[in-house]
Amino acid sequence: MSKKNAFYAQSGGVTSVINASACGVIEACRANSDKIGKLYAGQNGIIGALQENLIDTGKESAAAIASLLHTPGGAFGSCRYKMKDIKDSRAEYERLVEVFKAHNIGYFFYNGGGDSADTCLKVSQISEQMGYPIQAIHIPKTIDNDLPFTDCCPGFGSVAKYVAVSTKEASLDIASMCASSTKIFILEVMGRHAGWIAASGGLAAENAGDPPHIIIFPEIPFVREEFVAKVAATVKEKGYCVVVASEGAKYADGALISGSLHKDAFGHQQLGGVAPTLASMIKHSLGYKYHYALADYLQRAARHISSKTDVEQAYAVGRAAVEKALEGKSAIMVTIERGSAKKYSWSLGEVCLSNVANVEKKMPRSFITKDGFGITQEARDYLQPLIVGEDYPPYKNGVPQYAKLKNNLIEKKLSSSFSGD
């Protein structure tokens, strides 16, 4: 019996370190070439498997794979594609089995967030429900930091660092101008239901009273009157006010402060526009001149300022996924475990995917100040180690140099195609 090949794919919104996880997977597979055959990467996530668009990672040089460690984006293409339950869409799973059989794939590594964990769990069930042996391992990734049973999620530490640094630098700008010009600055950050990213803006403050003066969390119902009053009091005391707002901020009835009617493939409402909405409230209520910024893709693409801790963890969970598969494990997610000593340390563990899929980890109330507008020392103690360390990419002519893979597709073996219907 020939050794089994492996399949790796990236899913959901990419990060500045998801390719570090890919590097970990690929290098671990190469180090275990006596046990694992070829490693194929799905072109655009699980869609690559369904359409038999498989990239031969063996065609890439060791140097090219190593350069993934400092390259943002998704090197093989990502996707937002939600697989239905096997009872509702058996054709999808029959197609996966067909492709896996054709290419002797026995290992499935899926790199993504909560929805991706759900996909990975469903793929793992092929073994039992369709009689095809496949070991499916979920590799955590999400800037939202909302996966349960892991201390943190690869991708988050770097976004947290970007947001903290950006908040600090913008605060110095507005503090310089507030006497005769702009008094309000609002930074809108990602975070659908969980305020981890917004909270990281609080790390910009070194002393009590330092900006950001207000943080808007999805976990705390937004009250317009309280917000405006806090802004007014801050400007009166400090001369200016800096706000970090989560895109998922909502009122007590669950209505978003700002959101689109459009939904993505996972059924998530497209968010954005909180900053201008808040700015409009301030303008109409207080008349202050303002500026706002949307961190948007910049926060998750900023590899030039990634956290070294985050890069190391992202790489480690990729390698561990392969090692755990070789131990015979399946239907698990690799986890990051925080040490109990005062000095920060971490190790790797695992959790059953059935406990992870479609579960969100929100900010504990104890991490948010009593007034709902800031972070506590407990939150700071949790967040601070995750942004520590610099891991700059190589530069040439003043700009970072990132990986450029060949991404050669292998020849298809199946005559049929998959439409997705």
Write a short abstract of this structure.
The protein has 421 residues and is of the alpha/beta class.
Q: Assign the CATH topology of the largest domain.
A: Rossmann fold
Structural class: alpha/beta
Count the strands?
Answer: 15
Tally of distinct domains: 2
Helix percentage range: 25-40%
Helix and strand pattern: EHEHEHHEHHEHEHEHEEEHEHHEEHEE
What is the gyration radius calculated from CA atoms? 23 Å
Distance between the ends: 35 Å
What is the approximate shape?
elongated
What ranges have pLDDT less than 50 throughout 5 or more consecutive residues?
260-268
What does this structure look like?
- The structure is a single chain.
- The protein has 421 residues and is of the alpha/beta class.
- It has two domains: 5-142 and 305-357 and 392-400, Rossmann fold, CATH 3.40.50.450; 156-302 and 365-387, Phosphofructokinase domain (Rossmann fold).
- Helix content is 33%, strand content 17%.
- It has 13 helices and 15 strands.
- The protein has helices at residues 18-31, 46-50, 62-66, 90-102, 114-124, 126-130, 156-177, 196-200, 224-238, 274-286, 296-301, 308-326, 377-383, and strands spanning 5-10, 39-42, 54-56, 105-112, 135-140, 184-189, 214-216, 241-246, 259-263, 269-271, 290-294, 332-338, 346-352, 395-396, 399-400.
- The strands form four sheets. The chain has a seven-stranded mixed β-sheet with strand order 3-2-1-4-5-12-13, sandwiched between helices. Strands 7-8-6-11 form a four-stranded parallel β-sheet, sandwiched between helices. A two-stranded antiparallel sheet has the order 9-10.
- Helix 1 packs parallel to helix 12 (308-326) and helix 9 packs across helix 10 (274-286).
- The longest helix is centred in the middle third of the chain and has 22 residues, at 156-177.
- Mean pLDDT is 94; it is low at 260-268.
